[in-house]
Amino acid sequence: MHYYVRSKNRGFALIATISIMGLLLVLAFAMMSLSSIELRTLKSSDAITNARANARMALMIAIGELQKEVGPDQRITARAAILDSATESDLADGVTHPHWMGTWNAWDDWLNSDAITSTYEKGRESRFRRWLVSHPDASALTEMSLPTTGTTSASGLVKMLTLPDDATGLGTVQVPAINLDNGRYAWWVTGENQKALISDQAERVDDFQRMHGRSHWSQSHFGWLDGMENAPETKEAYQKSISLNSYGLGEQDQELSKQIKKRYHALTTHSLGVLSNVRHGGLKKDLNLLLENERLPDEFGTFRSNNFNGSIVPIRANQGYIPSAVYPQHVNFTSWYKLHH
After folding, report:
1. What would the pLDDT profile of 203-218 be if each residue is shown by its tens digit?
2. What is the C-alpha to C-alpha distance for residues 185 and 50, in angstroms, rounded to an integer?
3. Contact call for residues 78 and 69 (beta carbons, < 8 A)
4. For residue range 128-160, what is the model confidence (pLDDT) as tens digits?
5. What is the DSSP string of 34-99?
6. pTM score, whole prediction
7. Where are the domains positioned within the chain?
8. Residue of 264, 268, 258 whose CA lies nearest to 227
9. How far, in Å, CA of 76 to CA of 101, rounded?
10. Which of 113, 114, 155, 156 could form a disulfide with 109 if both were Cys (CB 3.0 to 4.6 A apart)?
């Protein structure tokens, strides 16, 4: 006789297998999701790395161009706003990009040279060099009219700066971008030396600092500007202003902070100057020390032998002869002896 006993655990292996397969499926989906996240993170990281590399390259190019164009003493900088077609208004009429900074060659000839007439032309185009911004066509930057005629389509421009409450966009700075295989870059140079300095007359500890301080007002008086009546003018406020955005932070005045930011193109906390000789290069000479001498040193004698194109001599001894009698009324000015007394 045969007996069959039915097991109560029948089907357990099948259920266990299905459960394990489900767990493996969930694990596979989790790994796929993790891989997808890692892939997106990697792509984002690559984009950030490329953007940082492009920004670093733009910075190095900007510094290089600035050094090349403005490094020599015989260079002059100015904003494109000087090309204003209607100087009666407060706006830079006819200038699309008034905040671009350009470079010019300084005057290097005698004041009575026939070529002096070119210095009275608007913009002095004959002495213009280039604009200090990025552009896909480098040769276009040597055209002085570039900021007035526009540059490229709006899609090719990059906003370098926007100001608060600037509905007109007059304070916005846009420059053409240069496309690369892995993105694009743009750069723009502005001149801090062309802005009003937010500072207090600090204590001068040596002659150099005293001489530098003479080229600045003892106080800034920014409270005279519209909307900045509450601007602090204490020494503590100036000392805490390590940047334009930090000026007036202690006042906790949101409107004042907004007014300061709106004047980015007009105010600065860092503005230095050099008394350079823009004609011959080097530093300017202090004539006060020269005139303290009892006689004119030999190295400052007649310049006639080097002056073949003009008849005005910078400085001469009392005796001597002026090459031309065209300017007899200026004889006393050219005499070191008269200046000495």
Report:
1. 667 776 666 666 555 5
2. 10
3. no
4. 999 999 999 999 999 999 998 866 555 689 999
5. HHHHHHHHHHHHHHHHHHHHHHHHHHHHHHHHHHHHHSSTTEEEEEGGGG-S-TTSSS-TT-S-TT
6. 0.71
7. 63-190, 194-268, 287-340
8. 258
9. 10
10. 113
